[in-house]
Specification:
Elements lengths: L1 H32 L5 E9 L3 E9 L2 E5 L3 E5 L4 E5 L4 E5 L3 H7 L4 H4 L4 E7 L3 E8 L8 E7 L5 E8 L2 E12 L18 E4 L2
Parallel strand pairs: 6-12
Antiparallel strand pairs: 1-2, 1-11, 2-3, 3-4, 4-5, 5-6, 7-8, 8-9, 9-10, 10-11
Length: 198
């Protein structure tokens, strides 16, 4: 009986320790991505509703992304999406789940509440598996792959109601980003029709 109790305690301790380690990896990754001056990278997204690639820059909660189809600016509250095909700009205030689907690094705000953690250690990376504790959350599961050296995220897989979306990230670097980069400038698109959806 005593052996059984010791084995159970060891198993419980290892699960708790692994959860803390996974959180520590995500905390360190969030610190890298949240560099006060900003970061930029290339990305590709593949999911049930979209498939595209491009570049993005992030500074705090702000981001700017460019794909062959669109350019997006988000200043922390308002998002402008310029659709090249239609020469129009949609203005909106996106929800957290909408931001998660657009901004590859939005996970740095989501993981802190409402998820349990598990982690696998690969040869050169960590793979952190997050599972929502509330079945009503828009993102039910996430797998975040992080390089062990430098805590740089290289892939984010997330499960939403319409299936899995995979975001691959490359060419990551910390570099100063001007605040102007995250706001739409109508002078750069004088012919574009602006549609306010707020």
């Amino acid at each position: 009986m005593e052996k059984l109790r010791i084995i159970i305690m060891m198993l419980l301790f290892s699960v708790v320790a692994q959860g803390q380690t996974a959180k520590q990896v995500l905390d360190k990754t969030a610190a890298v991505v949240s560099d006060k001056n900003g970061v930029q990278a290339n990305f590709s997204i593949k999911g049930a509703q979209m498939q595209t690639s491009g570049t993005f820059a992030v500074k705090g909660r702000k981001f700017h992304a460019t794909t062959p189809q669109a350019t997006m600016w988000f200043d922390g509250k308002t998002m402008w999406t310029y659709m090249k095909k239609n020469d129009e700009v949609n203005v909106s205030n996106p929800t957290e789940s909408q931001l998660a689907a657009i901004n590859p690094y939005n996970f740095i705000y989501l993981y802190k509440n409402g998820y349990t953690y598990k982690m696998e250690k690969g040869r050169n990376n960590y793979i952190v598996h997050l599972t929502a504790t509330d079945k009503k959350k828009n993102i039910q599961e996430m797998y975040i792959t992080v390089l062990q050296k430098g805590y740089i995220p290289t892939q984010i897989r997330m499960k939403q109601s319409k299936g899995w979306t995979t975001i691959d990230i490359s060419q990551f670097k910390a570099t100063a980003q001007s605040d102007n980069l995250f706001r739409f400038n109508s002078k750069d698109y004088p012919q574009a029709e602006v549609i306010d959806l707020r």
